[in-house]
Every structure is written in C-alpha cells, then in structure tokens.
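Fold this sequence, please.
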Amino acid sequence: QVQLVESGGGLVQPGGSLRLSCAASGFTLNEYATGWFRQAPGKEREGVSCINRGDGRGYYADSVKGRFTISRDNGKNTVYLQMNSLKPEDTAVYYCKCGLYWGQGTQVTVSS
C-alpha cells in the first residue's frame, strides 16, 4: 500500500526549530522528486521546498530560503524538512507530496 506519513509538527516559539519527517511506504522515495507544501488558514496551499530524485538537490521558496533545509535518508525511505528560525507566518499545516501521493499533513504553530 502506497502511503506518505508526516510527523514532527507542533507548537514552537518564534525563533525555534522543528524537523518534519515524511516517511514513505509502498514505493521508493528517491525514485521521485518529493516536495513539502503548506497551507495556512484562509490561504492557498503553497510550495515550500522540494528535493530532486537521485542527486538530492534541494530547492526552496524565497520565504524559507536560508532557514529551512530539505534532506532525504534513502535507508529510511524518509524525507525531512529542518525548519530553523521559525516565524509566526510559518504557521500552517505542512504536507509532503511525492508523485501523485500526498500525506495527511502535520500542524506547525509558531507562537509565543
């Protein structure tokens, strides 16, 4: 069964860090590009970052460049999103997507 499961969200103060995980089952992540998206209340879903299949090169939205890092552990079939220097405007539900498949999302809330 093909499945993507996100984890690692939570409540963090501004300036804090979180690491999101996207674990895949039923297929091999590094055969496809994988992306992280987010959706804040009342806003459209937006792309945050993606990682190439194969060479693992990462790409970032301007809003997160220099603060977020995407990576992949092929042995664990998992993609990560390390989020540092978090801001209140990063608050959203974060989703990973690979091919046609989406995860269920994990809530990230940045608030003091």
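DSSP finds no helices and eleven strands in the chain. Residues 19 and 82 are 4 Å apart (CA to CA).
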